[in-house]
Sequence to fold (216 residues):
Amino acid sequence: MHKEGDSTVMAMACGVVLVGVLLYYYQAPIWLLLLIMVPLFVAFLIVLNFFRYPERHFQGDRLHDVIAPSDGTIVTIEEVYEPEYFQDHRIQISIFMSLTNVHAQWNPLAGEVLRAEHEDGRFKKAYLPKSSIENERSTIVIKSDAGPVILMRQIAGAVARRIVTYIVAGERIEIDGELGFIKFGSRIDLFLPLDAKINVKMGEAVKGNITAIAKI
Fold:
């Protein structure tokens, strides 16, 4: 289980146990016990599943591959103008994470972190295009060992209310390293050079630290 879920899972476990003890103490009928405890237990299992943190090791080209930083579905592949850092055109690839996906993020490549900044914002649904610039987000810029610079954004969604970024500007990062975590539904945007070779297609499911989404 991921460390970000420790307090949430513990609080839910205590809540489930407390409700069960109270129902038993007051001798609630079996139908009421099941009516209350079964949904609570299912909700606990869903949260426990959300905070899972599988051990993964990338097996591809560690110099030129851009690796999916998270699990999810590809919802955007297009050329866009990136106004905040590059101020030129880039290929944007966006990954939408549902509640059932692993929500830990891994480093998409090895290199030097040029920028890592958190920005407050709104909480629109993460699959909407405007969420990339209007929602709460963290922006990470990385100069890869291969030379090209990429930009990645962790974006909060309508449910997600906490973005955690572990890396900082000036730090060197490696493949297989943990980048951060977003709680409960969110999106990742990657802005790549125009000459990047894209290896994924719209609607494709990808796995964090497993799927090579592009080659630079």
